[in-house]
Each structure stands twice: as structure tokens, then as C-alpha cells.
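Dear support,

I submitted the protein below through the web form. The confirmation email said the job was done, but the results page showed an empty box. After a refresh the structure appeared. I'm attaching both so you can tell me whether what I see now is the final result or a partial one.
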Amino acid sequence: MENKGSSSVLKPLLSYMRPYAGLIIAALAMAVINAAAVLYAPVITGKAIDLMTDMGRVELDGIAPLLVYFAIAVAAAALSQYIMNLCLNKAAYGAVRDLRCAAFEKLSRLELKYYDTHAKGDVLSRIISDIEQISDGLIMGFAQLFTGIVTIVGTIGFMLSISVKITVAVVVLTPLSLFAAKYIAANTFKYFKTQTAVRGELTAYVEEMTGNLKTVKAFSRERESERAFEEINSKFGSASVSAIFFSSLTNPVTRFINGLVYAAVGVFGAFSVINGGFSVGELSCFLTYANQYTKPFNEISGVVTELQGALACASRVLALIEEPPEPPDSDDAVTLESVNGELSARNVYFSYDPDKPLIEDLNIEVKSGQRIAIVGPTGCGKTTFINLLMRFYEVNSGEIRLSGVPVSRCTRDSVRSSYGMVLQDTWLKSGTIRENIAYSKPDASLEEIKAAAAAAHCDGFIRRLENGYDTFITEDGGTLSAGQKQLLCIARAMLSLPPMLILDEATSSIDTRTELLIQRTFGEIMKGRTSFVIAHRLGTVRNADRIIVMNAGRIVEQGTHEELMEKKGFYSRLYNSQFEE
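What the results page shows now:
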């Protein structure tokens, strides 16, 4: 969709306007009333002029009722214009709201690999900035389009009633401005498309830098960061200048052509008055209609260029909406209800890139209640294996079974709800401490939340906060330390206590004393629960029932700590390297 032209984008975009057809029809009716009132005013003006053209004679008795009619026409035009804009605004904002909801809903249904290849800032730009641009384009576009088309049709009818010959000349000459506008608009779309793409790149960079400002300052990379920003910003400025320059050509070009048409009408009309073809009032009326006839062409041509920017943004938003979602659960998918913790992986192969193998021929059998530690060098596939267990990714071949059932035949929700997960990267949402802990169990009571916090050894610092459990924090945790944020994530996992646990460097940001206390708590809650522990500090996994050692996507060793140390193999070298001077 991002690579398609403006015409292919317009149809799916208009489909979001379909639910608001009633408002659009009402707006169209108001546009007709508005055009009729506006076009009737010159008729009244022309009649009034004819009542004042004779030397020394002004027919005031005839002018007075014309003033009343003129006032009624102006009032009708103003009221219909207000109602039309109201209807169009409601329709456009409603359609844009639905579009934004569809885009946001798609975010939760996309496969994780989409986020591996798209910057977060670019996704934010599509949902916020691009959709805002679409909103402006739709409102302006429909308002000008409706009134413009109705005005053009109406003025042709009124001009024909005055002079057929001059009307034909006007109608034949005016489309020259449309051809000029079409040529400019065709070249404008590609520049607006480049502009929106670079805007997304700029938003992504700003989001990246502001989110990691401490790291930038720690390495004194402020100047380099500013230079990179200036480079992207300059590229955005160049793209914007090109788009605005070409779009700004439309209005003066069409105005020049329509000005020539208006001058031609004035000249021919003057000769017609001299020859007695029609009166001065009729000439004045005709000139007004000629001006009103050409004015919508100017406005519509301006709208076309504005619409090019909106369509360029729409192509990016619709590309997001039309991204293939995560494959749905099969119709015969099983909902796991009683998970006993048994798990097996047989001949599992997986890679993010087909040309770069990662996990190859992985086999593992886990009994209920076992504590499994997964260790190995960075990039060996530990976290990837966990992602496969949770069905964040699907295996390329092989099979993973949970409680004897292939996870590919289970609903994703039931598989994921079978695990409690604490990751090295903490995630908190904007809200209170209480809401963050209860994220895993929304109906939990305050007593349950406090018990989970106490088990995670974070109850103490929570109580010291100004509002305790009702303290509001931002999505990055605000002033909380990295360790405190990780403790809140641990409390969140402890609150739900599902039958299986995944701890991926869950205590990496916590001090040694608190870590020992939490490890003791983990030891209590792991009893009877199958758990997977990923750790780089091998001293924390010595008590695991089984240690799985991975390297280059394969299991190279497995056994207890003592068994692996006796082998003096890969694990032994990893373990000893952490204690060598």
C-alpha cells in the first residue's frame, strides 16, 4: 500500500466514511441550499442595478423588497454553510477516529517480527501525525468539494439563462485550469509521500534519543546526536519545501487561467451590452456568475494538493492496517485449562532470517514441577526459545508440547496465561503502583496486591512513597530506580501465580541482599510449578533441577550443576570464567 499511487489509496480511505453516509448526505443537501442562496443573490443585485441605471431615476419602491430578499438569501447561505460544516466535521472526525482505532487495534494483533523491523517512533508517527494530516485533508476536501461542485452546476444553469454563447465559451475555457492542477497534483503526491516517510524517521529518532538521554549524556554524545538530528531534519526540510513548492503552484496557475476567462467574459459582455444583447444589470450578474464559476476550480485545485498530503499519510496508515496479522487460532484449537507443567520440545528449528539459522534440532523433556535453568553465551538462543514456548513466534519445524498437547493446536491466550513472566527489561504503564501490580490480575483485592508486594520485597519502599499504593507513575517508572521497577514486575508475576514461571534475568537490577531474599521467595513459589530461569550469573542457578546449556542455537549439555562440573565441558568453562581473577 505504501508503494501505491493516490488513486489506489482513496477507495479504502473512503470506506471509513461509509458509516457516516447520513451526515454526508445532509451536508450535500446543505451545500445545494447554500449554492442556491449564493447564486440567487447576484440575480437580486442585477435587478437592483437595472432599477438605478436610468439618468436621474432610481426606483426605490422596487429596490426595498429586493433588499429583503437579499438579506434572506445571505442568511440562508450562512446557516446552510454552518450546518454543512458541522455535518462534515462530525463525519470526518468520526471516520478518522475509526481509522485510528483500527490502526491501534492492529498493533496488538501484529506478529512480533513487525516490531523487529519498524522503529517505534515511525509507528507512533503513523497513528498520531499521519492520521491528523488525514483529518485535515478530509475536512477541507469534502467541504470545498461539495460546495464547489454544486456551485459549478448552479452557475452554469444561471449563466445559460442569460447568454448561451458566452456560457459555452466559459465552460470550454475553464477546464484548462483543471488540466494544469491535475499535472501539478500528480507530481506533488510523490513529494508529500517522501515528506511523510522522513517525518516518521524524524519522530523515531527523537523518540529514541529522548528515551535514552542518560546514555547519550553518559558517553558525551550530545553533539553527535544533534548532528544526526540536524541531518534528518534537513532532509525533512528539503522534502517539505519540495512538497509545498509544487503544491503552491496550483492556486496561482489556476487563478491566472481563470482570470483570463473572466477578462474574456467582460470584453464579450461589454460588446453585447453595446449591441443591446442584454442590460448592464445582466452583465453585472453574468460577471458575478463567471467569477463564482471559476472560484470553485481554484478552491478544488487547492484541495487536490492538500488531499495529496493526506493521501500520502493515508498510504502509510493503511499499510499498517493491512499488514498481515498474527495467524488466528485454528477452529479446532484447544483451550488449556489444567496445565500440569509437563513440556517437551522435539526437533525444533527456528530462525528470524531464513538465511541465518538460529535454533536447530532442539530437543528437551521437562517434568512437572522441575526448575530448569537455561544458560549460555549471549545470542545463543535462550530468549528465542522462551519466545517459542510462549508462542510469540511459531517454530519453522518440529513441535512443542505443553501438558501433552501441541501448542500449535492450543489457543494462544491459554498458552500464554499458563506462564508468569518476569523479564530483564521492565515494563510499567502510566497509572498507580496498585494498577501496575494488578495488571496480571485486574480483579485482585488490595490485600492480595500487598501480599504480592511483600513477597517481592517492594512493600517497604511503596509504603514510603507519598501516596503509597495509589502513587501515580509514568510509563518509564518516573523517579523509581531500575531495581524498584523490576521489583514491581516481580510482584506483578507473583500476584497471578500461574502453573509455570519464566524468569529472564529477573533480578539483574537488584542488589545482592534483596536478590537473595527474592531468590528464597522464588524458591517457595516455584515448589510444584515448572519454571524456566535464564541467567548469566551462573551462581544463581546452582540449585536448579536441571541446567540446559545452549550454544549457537543447540543444546550442548544438560544436567545438574555437579554433573556438568564433573564433565569439565562447556558449562564448566563458563562457570569457572566468572570466578577467575
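Response: this is the final, complete result; the empty box was a page-load delay. The chain has a mean pLDDT of 80.
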